[in-house]
Amino acid sequence: MYGTEDFHDKIRAACLDYIESEKVFFEAYIDEDFEEYIARKRQNGEWGDDIELQALSEIYNRPIEIYAYSANPMRTFHENN
Predict the structure, then answer these.
(1) Residue 21 sits in a domain of what CATH number?
(2) Which domain, by its residues, includes 68?
(3) Model-level pTM?
């Protein structure tokens, strides 16, 4: 988003703040205690997954495409119609 890793902490915090603010939606996709999940994901070294990618695509209003072993995306978040 910013062209540098210097804003990693800001993006992580914004992402998890957003997930907390939209708890009613996101908790259905979390298979552990919601508060414990948020606390764990706030720690450096924790990987984001589909939940965090969906939240980031909504926060920044941008599509996110995941590529692996192909020139075609295997997963897209926040698709444009």
Answers:
(1) 3.90.70.80
(2) 5-77
(3) 0.84
* Residues 6+ away with beta carbon under 8 Å from 79: 63
Residues 7-41 pLDDT 10s: 999 999 999 999 999 999 999 999 999 999 999 99
How many domains, the chain?
Answer: 1
The DSSP bridge pattern shows strands 64-66 and 75-77 to be antiparallel
Written as six digits, the tokens of 44 are: 């450096």
Is residue 42 within 8 A of residue 13, CB to CB? The reply is: yes
Which residue carries 């988003």 as its tokens?
Answer: 1
Q: Using an 8 Å Cβ cutoff, are 59 and 78 in contact?
A: no
For residue 39, give both structure tokens: 């606390």
